[in-house]
């Protein structure tokens, strides 16, 4: 059969239309896949960022209790001081809304019930009351019973505390044992869930997306339906729905503490759910994104492609090619950018959250004036400092991890944690440093090392013991300003079993010491001149309090460096021993 020109034209049009439609289908497939990947990245990134913010508050709250366990144990013989322990937790930790020190009924023959409670009032003031009342049976409360049962720290289910703050909260509790190992009571920190509701409610990955949080028992803590809050479990809510496609499997995954994503059918529409657990609390958080939101742009693009098909095959082919190439390039660049930003953000958070940054550091004392700061460079590094008081001794340290980036930040975190753990029971800095070197050397597969200075200032006797591990000698401020005589010793993490020389000097009232990392003395200006020790000495003249010293040094460095980029982290710790007894 012979085909005429019109037939050939029609055949050409049909062939072109089929080819164009096939191209459109291919474009639709890849675009849908790319958009789904983008939605996954956006949701998971937001979920992880929000999870990190929540876990920061969780970590702060747990640390507030754990750091005061030893004080609470001491107060078992001084019950009048128990209110002060709770007050100190709230003063040092703004995220904590209330704290209680509840004793086991009849402990040591005292009152049957004894439970002072301090909470933050609406005007920000601290108020105290007793939970040991006939109306409030604190002994049967989950926050009291569970830690005694498990013998470990415990996060309670969210609840409205009618005996204390009177608002929706959750409580972290630690059991307190006396010196004979007997369970004596429970020390707690409460956090209001108002901040959590605001944080989770602000997440808006897509216009119609919403968020759901479940408690350990499956109760709906937060959802778009406010009336469900702490009223029903997720399984009770699902049982009331007509269409529950995928919801049963989702609830099981959430209650099992799993993380991931899955599709569900809700109100007749398909949605994607991304979920992750909140460690230690038993909570689970999820972000629900309707498919209509995810693929809204794809639908609009389909209409545009259809119109462009009518206008011309060449233009359509060009646009499809440009679009697909642009989408792929965008996804690739976006993944790279998010990876870099995530790494820097995590490393910075680790570094800054691991060091004490509230000053005055010990407001209850008048024999110490301290200030410290880390001024990070463009890249995150491994500088650290730390200090705390135990048995009228100030334990402090400054260190600098070799290298930069996330590996250095992680080594910094391990170093600081090791210092805290060892110095909790050891008073001699030489032994602390030696044990730290052995620990770091045994796990140092990356061949990174840490220059480290560790000091123990006896506040009662005015004696400073210290040990230097390859770090810059601190500046000693007495009648003169000069470097502290130090044995160099070997940096930490190089060779296990190395010996470290401990040194000791008298430390009189009004003496001071400046510890720093090489980011101070090696700060360079545009002419590649270094700041040096002589400029450090000049910056230490003419000031009295520690914060003024710290700000003056930072100003001197900034004026000297000018517009030159900062090449290394700069860490400063200033300690001034004042004439006065602790209050």
Structural features, described:
- This protein has helices at 5-66, 69-75, 82-92, 142-150, 194-201, 234-239, 247-255, 291-294, 296-311, 313-353, 405-423, 429-442, 518-521, 532-539, 546-561, and strands spanning 98-103, 116-120, 126-130, 154-155, 159-160, 168-177, 183-192, 210-214, 220-222, 260-266, 269-278, 283-290, 368-375, 383-390, 393-401, 450-458, 463-469, 475-477, 481-483, 503-506, 512-516, 570-577.
- The protein is α+β, with helices and mostly antiparallel strands and 583 residues long.
- Among the domains are: 67-195, Beta-Lactamase (2-Layer Sandwich); 354-577, Phosphatase 2c, domain 1.
- A hairpin with a 2-residue loop joins strand 14 and strand 15 (393-401).
- Helix 1 runs parallel beside helix 10 (313-353), helix 10 runs parallel beside helix 11 and helix 11 packs across helix 12 (429-442).
- The protein is flat.
CATH class term of the domain at 354-577: Alpha Beta
Please state the oligomeric state of the protein chains shown. single chain
Strand content: 15-25%
As residue ranges, the low-confidence spans are none
N- to C-terminal separation? Answer: 110 Å
What is the general shape? flat
Number of helix segments? 15
Largest sheet: 7 strands, antiparallel
CATH architecture of the domain at 354-577: 4-Layer Sandwich
Radius of gyration: 31 Å
